[in-house]
Amino acid sequence: IAMATTVVSKSYNKGATPIIHYTTELSTTSFTALQKELLDATLAKAHIPAMVGAPEVLEMGKSMINLNQSKKVLDIGTFTGASALAWAIELPEDGKVISMDVDHTQLENVGLPVINKAPELKAKIDFRLGSAVDTLKSLIANGESGSFGFAFIDADKENYPNYYELCLQLLVPGGVIMVDNALWSGSVVEPKESSSIAIDKLNRIAAADTRVHNTLLNVGDGVHLIVKKH
Q1: Which Pfam families did the record assign (predicted)?
Q2: pTM of the entire structure?
Q3: What average pLDDT does this structure show over 82-96?
Q4: How many CB atoms sit inside 10 A of residue 148's CB?
């Protein structure tokens, strides 16, 4: 595992290698000034700043939204709003991000002062406070299954398998789930604590799921790219 940690890293971490910096530099050319401002503010001011998604992961997500022309996005784990902002940038004017978290402290203190500078983007984001499991179930109960084009999972790891199943119900055929922290600093190779055990469980569920195509990628802290089959 010690070897694995040398090649699993978000680009803004001190442990990032030259090849990580190289690939990130060439993968984040569409990272906007507002995104950079929010990333910098998060790293400087947020509690546990390393929770923010890596730029290279957010840019991959934007590409997926563009690829399948998503109009509705699920964002599980708001934190300072960096991922929600990324998806809003890529969505059309009538697009909507439903962003979920049990705590909006970091969003209110760090994220909104930046996001509020772009009201046209903020208008696309529906920030929901409370359990993401409950929010996802409420969307299903509201008849919204099969209507979302993209889902990003980056919240409490123990619920990753639950988030996956609920998101899959809500996705359209051809919809994409991106699971962040899918390698968890390499600890999934020999998972011992609850977070790495849950992530490993989700990775194996997706790999065996005949309803999807999946690719587990060494990008950032690991990204599991999952596409719902038609």
Answers
A1: Methyltransf_3
A2: 0.94
A3: 98
A4: 24
